[in-house]
C-alpha cells in the first residue's frame, strides 16, 4: 500500500509540472459559489480527474477542478468543487487537496460554503464570517498516524479561523459596505438536512450556521499551519426556523443571488491579504 | 453485489412469498413483538431465509417478517430489527425499509423501547415521536445517493407525519391511553449513557433516548414513506435519580406496557386511511 504521504507528493508533483507560478493563496468554493473561479485571469485549469490520487467530485453544482490563476494580482489556487464526507469519501480523501495545496507551498486558505441559518437574526443571502466551528461529524481527518511533515500530533484549534485574517475580512466588508455577520459554523454529516430538533440542539450548543463541509478541511489546514478565512453564505434558514421544507434548489438559487456580493468581498479580502 | 442488487434480491424473494401488496410496514421494538400475534392469515418469513437480509442476534428479537391482516389492513411486520450496535452497517440496518418501499407500503410504524429523559414521563408511558436527534455519529444516506428512492439532500423538517401524529393522539384519547409527544434521541449504544451524557441530552432538548428507529426513519423519509414513531418508555433515565436498568427490567416494563401498545396500534391501524395521498 502506498503511503498517504507519497500519494500527496505524487499529486503535488503532477500539479507543479503543469504550473508556471506557484500560488500562495488556496480557495475552496462551496455549493453554487464556484463562479468566483471565472474572475481569475491567466487561468490554468486542471481537472481533479487528471491529478494522481485525487478523488472525483460527483455532486451537481460542483465542477471538480482546480483553477490556477490570478485574482487581484495575487496568485491563487481555486478549488471549484470539493469532496464531501456525505458522498462516501473518507475524511482523508475529503482533506487530501488541503495537504496537496500545503505541499505546493500554499499557506493561506479561504474556505467558503453554503450553510443553513441557525441564528434567527440571520436571513437567507447573508454572508457570515466563521469565527469558530463545532465538529459534529463524528469523525476527524487527523485520526490515524500523524503526518509529521505537515504538523504536530496534537494541533491547537484555539485560533482555527485566524483572528488577523478575520480582521482583514471585516475591514474589507466595511470598506465595501457589505454586511458581514459573524458566528460559529457547526458541521453535520448530511446528506439529509437536519431535523428541527437537531437545529434547536445546535442553537443551544452555540452554533449560528449549519452545513456539511468546511470543518474537516479547516482542521487539516490548521494542522498543516495554514491561516484560514471561512465564509458561509446563508442560503436558507435551517429546519424548523420557517414553516417550510428545505430544498437544494433553494440553496443554489440563493447562492446565485448573492454571488456578486460574495465575489466583491472575496476579491477585496484577497487584495488585502 | 451492490446495495441496489441486494435490495432487489430480498424484494424478489419476499414478493413471491406474499399474495398481495402490503399497505403498512411495522417495526416492532424490544419486547413489543407480541403485536404480531394479532395479525391474521399470517405468512411468516424468517430473516435467515431472505437473501441478503442480515440476521438479528439480540435477546427478545425474533428475527422474522410477518405478513397478514391487521384490523382490515394488509401489514408487513418486522419482529426483530437490526441494530447498529450489533455491528451492522447503517445500510444493513435500513435495508428492510428499502425493501418495504419496493413492496409498495404506504406507511411505516416504527416502535422502540427507550429511556425517559423528561420528568413529566414515567416508566410504562408511551410517547409519540414528534422529532428526533441523530447522535449515532453515522447516517444511512452517506455514500452515493440511491436516486431511484429519493433526492440527494432530503428534507427532514417533518420526518414523522403530522397527520398520523394527530390521528394517533386522537386514538389514544379515545382509548384512554396516556400519550406524550416528544423528541427521541438516538445514540449508538450498546452501553447505557453516563449521567453526564444524559444531562447533555436533556440540555439538547431530548425527551427520550434509545438505540434504534432514527436510521429507519431517515431512510423512510428519503424514500417518501409516511412514518409514525412510538416509543415505549421502559425506564426513566434521569441522571440525578438513576437506577441502572437491566435488559431484563426493560423487557419486564415493556411487558406491562404491551397491552396499551397493542390496543393503541390496532385501533390506529383500523382508523388510518390509506388513500393515494398516504
List keywords for this structure.
heterodimer, A: 273 residues, alpha/beta, five-stranded mixed beta barrel, B: 278 residues, Rossmann fold, five-stranded mixed barrel, globular
What does this protein look like?
By secondary structure, chain A is an alpha/beta fold. Chain A has a single domain (4-272), classed as Nucleoside phosphorylase domain (Rossmann fold). Helices cover 32% and strands 25% of the residues of chain A. Chain A has helices at 4-17, 91-104, 163-176, 196-205, 215-223, 248-272, and strands at 25-29, 41-47, 65-71, 74-80, 108-117, 127-135, 180-187, 209-211, 227-237. Chain A has a five-stranded mixed β-barrel. The longest helix of chain A is centred in the C-terminal third of the chain and has 25 residues, at 248-272. Chain A starts with a helix and ends with a helix. By secondary structure, chain B is of the alpha/beta class. Chain B has a single domain (3-271), classed as Nucleoside phosphorylase domain (Rossmann fold, 3-Layer(aba) Sandwich), CATH 3.40.50.1580. Chain B is 31% helix and 25% strand. Chain B has six helices and nine strands. A five-stranded mixed beta barrel of chain B has the order 5-8-7-6-9. In chain B, helix 3 links the parallel strand 6 (126-135) and strand 7 (179-187). Chain B is globular, with a radius of gyration of 17 Å. Chain B starts with a helix and ends in a 7-residue tail after the last helix. The model of chain B has no long low-confidence stretch (mean pLDDT 92). Chains A and B meet through helix 4 of A and strand 6 and helix 5 of B.
Amino acid at each position: 500500500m502506498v503511503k498517504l504521504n507519497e500519494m500527496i507528493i505524487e499529486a503535488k508533483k503532477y500539479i507543479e509540472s503543469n504550473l508556471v507560478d506557484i500560488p500562495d493563496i488556496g480557495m475552496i468554493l462551496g455549493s453554487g459559489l464556484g463562479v468566483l473561479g471565472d474572475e481569475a485571469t491567466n487561468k490554468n485549469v486542471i481537472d481533479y480527474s487528471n491529478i494522481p490520487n485525487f478523488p472525483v467530485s460527483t455532486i451537481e453544482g460542483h465542477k471538480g477542478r482546480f483553477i490556477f490563476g490570478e485574482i487581484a494580482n495575487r496568485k491563487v489556487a481555486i478549488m471549484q468543487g470539493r469532496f464531501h464526507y456525505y458522498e462516501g469519501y473518507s475524511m482523508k480523501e475529503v482533506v487530501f487537496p488541503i495537504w496537496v495545496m500545503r505541499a505546493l507551498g500554499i499557506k493561506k486558505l479561504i474556505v467558503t460554503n453554503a450553510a443553513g441559518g441557525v441564528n434567527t437574526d440571520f436571513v437567507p443571502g447573508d454572508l457570515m464570517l466563521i469565527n469558530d466551528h463545532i465538529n459534529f461529524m463524528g469523525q476527524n481527518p487527523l485520526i490515524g498516524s500523524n503526518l509529521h511533515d505537515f504538523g504536530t500530533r496534537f494541533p491547537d484549534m484555539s485560533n482555527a479561523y485566524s483572528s488577523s485574517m478575520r480582521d482583514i475580512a471585516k475591514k474589507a466588508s466595511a470598506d465595501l459596505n457589505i454586511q458581514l455577520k459573524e458566528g460559529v459554523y457547526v458541521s453535520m454529516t448530511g446528506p439529509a438536512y437536519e431535523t428541527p430538533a437537531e437545529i434547536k440542539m445546535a442553537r443551544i450548543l452555540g452554533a449560528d450556521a449549519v452545513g456539511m463541509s468546511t470543518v474537516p478541511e479547516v482542521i487539516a489546514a490548521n494542522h498543516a499551519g495554514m491561516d484560514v478565512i471561512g465564509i458561509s453564505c446563508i442560503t436558507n434558514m435551517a429546519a424548523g426556523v420557517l414553516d417550510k421544507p428545505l430544498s437544494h434548489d433553494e440553496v443554489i438559487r440563493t447562492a446565485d443571488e448573492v454571488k456578486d456580493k460574495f465575489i466583491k468581498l472575496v476579491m477585496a479580502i484577497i487584495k488585502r491579504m | 453485489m451492490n446495495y441496489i442488487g441486494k435490495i432487489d434480491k430480498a424484494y424478489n424473494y419476499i414478493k413471491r412469498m406474499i399474495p398481495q401488496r402490503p399497505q403498512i410496514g411495522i417495526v416492532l421494538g424490544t419486547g413489543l413483538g407480541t403485536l404480531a400475534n394479532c395479525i391474521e392469515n399470517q405468512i411468516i418469513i424468517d430473516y435467515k431465509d431472505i437473501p441478503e437480509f442480515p440476521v438479528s442476534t439480540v435477546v427478545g428479537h425474533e428475527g422474522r417478517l410477518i405478513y397478514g391482516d391487521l384490523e382490515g389492513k394488509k401489514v408487513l411486520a418486522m419482529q426483530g430489527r437490526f441494530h447498529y450496535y450489533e455491528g451492522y452497517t447503517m445500510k444493513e440496518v435500513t435495508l428492510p425499509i428499502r425493501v418495504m418501499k419496493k413492496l409498495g407500503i404506504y406507511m411505516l410504524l416504527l416502535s422502540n423501547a427507550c429511556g425517559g429523559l423528561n420528568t413529566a414521563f414515567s416508566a410504562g408511558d408511551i410517547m409519540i415521536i414528534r422529532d428526533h436527534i441523530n447522535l449515532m455519529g453515522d447516517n444511512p444516506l452517506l455514500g452515493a445517493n440511491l436516486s431511484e428512492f429519493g433526492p440527494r439532500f432530503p428534507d427532514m423538517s417533518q420526518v414523522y407525519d403530522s397527520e398520523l401524529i394527530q390521528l394517533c393522539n386522537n386514538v389514544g384519547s379515545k382509548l384512554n391511553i396516556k400519550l406524550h409527544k416528544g423528541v427521541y434521541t438516538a445514540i449508538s449504544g450498546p452501553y447505557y449513557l453516563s449521567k453526564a451524557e444524559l444531562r447533555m441530552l436533556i440540555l439538547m432538548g431530548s425527551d427520550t433516548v434509545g438505540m434504534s428507529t432514527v436510521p429507519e426513519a431517515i431512510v423512510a423519509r428519503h424514500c417518501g414513506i409516511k412514518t409514525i414513531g412510538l416509543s415505549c418508555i421502559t425506564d426513566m433515565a434521569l441522571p440525578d435519580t438513576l437506577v441502572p436498568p437491566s435488559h431484563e427490567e426493560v423487557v419486564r416494563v415493556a411487558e406491562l406496557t404491551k397491552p396499551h401498545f397493542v390496543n393503541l396500534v390496532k385501533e390506529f391501524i383500523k382508523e388510518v386511511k390509506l388513500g393515494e395521498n398516504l
